[in-house]
Amino acid sequence: MVATPGPAAIRAIALSYRGFGAEHPGQYAAFLLPPTARDSSLALAQSQIVDIFIRATQSTGITGDAAVHAARAVRSGIHGFVALEFVDAFTSKVSKNASFDNLVASILRGLLPEPAESVVICRPV
Fold it and tell me: pTM (2 decimals)?
C-alpha cells in the first residue's frame, strides 16, 4: 500500500525522482547501473525503487503484469526527462517545470481510464 494512492502517488514519485536526480546526480547515476553480485546493496536499492513504482501504479487500479508494464513506462518517461535535464539538453527558454508537468499529465492520461486533472506538481529545481 502507498500512503498517497492513485494519480497523486504517480505525481509524488515523479517529483521526488526529479528532485533526487537534481540534488544527488552521482547517486542518481549510480542506481541506474546494473547491480553486480559484489554489490547487493545496490541491487536491493534498485529493487526497492522498482517496487515503489509498481505499488504506485497498482494504487491506480492497475493489476498483475499490467502494473509492471505501467511502472516501467512511468519510470522510463520520468527518467528520460531527468536524464536529459541532467545534461542540459533542454535549451529552449520554455519552462522545464511546465514541460515536466505536461509529461506527468500525459503519462497519467495514458495509464488511467479517465483523464487526469491538470495540476502543477513541480517546484523549480
Answer: 0.81
Q: pLDDT, tens digit, for every residue of 49-64?
A: 889 999 999 999 999 9
Which region, left, alpha or beta, applies to residue 88 given φ > 0 means left and ψ of -120 to 50 means alpha?
Answer: left
The answer on pLDDT for 82 being more than 90 is yes
Rg from Cα positions in the chain: 15
Contact between 111 and 60 under an 8 Å Cβ cutoff? The reply is yes
Round to whole Å and give the CA distance between 108 and 7: 7
Instruction: Give dist(CA 1, CA 49) in Å, integer.
Output: 14
- The count of other CB atoms within 10 Å of the CB of residue 32 is 12
Q: Which residue is associated with the grid cell 516501467?
A: 72
| Alpha carbon distance 72, 58 (integer Å) | 12
